[in-house]
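Minutes, methods subgroup
Present: GH (chair), OT, SY

1. OT presented the first of two proteins processed in the latest run. Sequence and structure tokens recorded below as shown on screen.
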Amino acid sequence: MTTQNSEQESLKKSPTIKSKLSGVLENSIFKTTKFNILNILLISGFSLPFIFLALDSEGGLMEIEKILTCNPYVNQLTKNDSSTKPECQQITNLHPTKVLKGLDVSHYQGDIHWGKVAKSQHAFAITKATGGIDYVDPFFKSNWYNIRRHGLVRGTYHFFYADDDPKKQAEHFLTTVGSMRKMDLPPIIDVEITSHTDRKELIENTLIWLKIVQEATQKTPIIYTSMSFGHDFLSDPRFGDYYLWIAEYTNELKALPKPWADKKWFMWQHSQRGSVAGIKGDVDLSQYKGSLENLHSFIKHSNL
């Protein structure tokens, strides 16, 4: 009994958990002037740019809206979201000075030593899969597998013939490629010849291919075309719902084709005569406008 009384007395004298917690909080960083000042500085530093933009003009508020809702790494048009404007598809305000190097290949490059390519500071590689309704690039399977195996971001494209059935072309591409991984680049359509069709037929057939492939892969496709061909034949505003990979072999890009005229480029094939370790002969070189983190984020948000 004496021992029990002593223990009870000891417990009465010892601080409770509640009192300990109160003491910790009372003397913690949350109660210090330094913490409150740091909080004020951090909040002010984050908020002031947006406040200045908003106070500057009505355009400031629009700019904030663009940053938050019109960024391809943050927001992507969905099949059922008709309220999202097409211009949201190309605008990016993230890492505007960073550029990633990439390349695209086909049977023209023959056997490729992808281990060497992976060490050449190229972040992504795109390989040809199909063309028309029956052509399969003989190096597609090998390239498609090895690009991913060696740690590069991979993509693949279909060479489009406007005079072939667009549904059959889409099915041919999808069957050849099979399931695409979520971190693969979106499917790409290469549109650079008319195949002796008129402009209207070319546009409608291209849009049919895009719709079928988008629904099947649940990824918003990329359109590849040259600057001149895009201006001459791909002026339909509906193309603005898709990303543009532009081919232009100059030192700088000028005005993009009409559907993307008010948007920033994000992929640019700038050379047909590149030299890359592991590849014999010339190879097409491209740039991605952004960091590797941006590229991964873009791919993630291009998945529907």
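2. SY then presented the second protein from the same run.
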Amino acid sequence: MRKLCLLVGACLSLTLVSGCTAATDDAGTSRPVVMTPSSRMQSPSASPTADPSTSPSATVSSTSSPSGSASGDDDQGQTTPDARGKIDNNTDPGSGDGRGDGDPADGPTSIQEPRPTQMIPATVMTPAMEGVVEADAVAALARIGLDAEVTYQPSDTVPSGIVISASVEEGTAVALGTVVALVVSGGSGGEGLIDLPSYVGTPSDEARAELEALGLVVVTTAEHSIAIAPGSVISQSPDTGQASPGDTVTLVVSDGPELLAVPDVMGMSGAAACDAIDAVGFTCQIVCDLENCDSDGFLDRVARIAPEAGTMVYQGFSVTVHVV
């Protein structure tokens, strides 16, 4: 026993001198343990041994980084345990549940419906038109997307072909496609007057096109006629002479002959029957059905009509009355 105590004391003395001892790991292998002065001076109560199985935080604090830091932060992107001892392999703060932290790479935070676009019609400023040549004013309006409606008016002060007034003042904001009415001078004292030809017998469509091309306003009315073909001009007013731009010309257009009923003239004298037939619009012819109409037996009374009374025929048709 004494020898054993001496041997233990020698070992303790050797340990204090060399600062070395031997430790055995779980596998039974001996490994050197370096004892520093601070570790020999530390009180056992100041550094209690933590149970790794019951203190996850002790496990975290005992893990040292290659740089000597025991904080558990990994500057090289290595996996580190969290405060609960779990390892978080996700090192990208912007990934996860898709909500992100505000980084544009995280995508939109919410889906928003696009707002409907309010369509505001484009507007343009009207150019100067009063005192401008008609063709120039119309072209200026067309260049900015506006239409012109031109009428003509005689004027003693404004030369022919110059704009007298416009329906919209210069510098007014209007929508594209707006129609601007222009009043153009037709002149006076023979200046700007138009020689008006006769269009009687001319198809009304041709007459209208030519008159409107001269700057005249055309009005048409219809009448029945047996002399003028349907659709052609029967008469016009004014018929000939001169007119100023903007003047109105009235055309009377044929509707053709009218459909009329033959009147009942039975029992009338031949002359009286023809007067009645002519008044309706037909022509009349008398035929005596006797061999000798000059005899004492001639009564001069209508005994038959062709076509019969009440028949609808066109105006101007010839009706024959037979007298006895």
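Chair's summary of item 2: The CA atoms of residues 24 and 199 lie 135 Å apart.
Next meeting: continue with the remaining queue.
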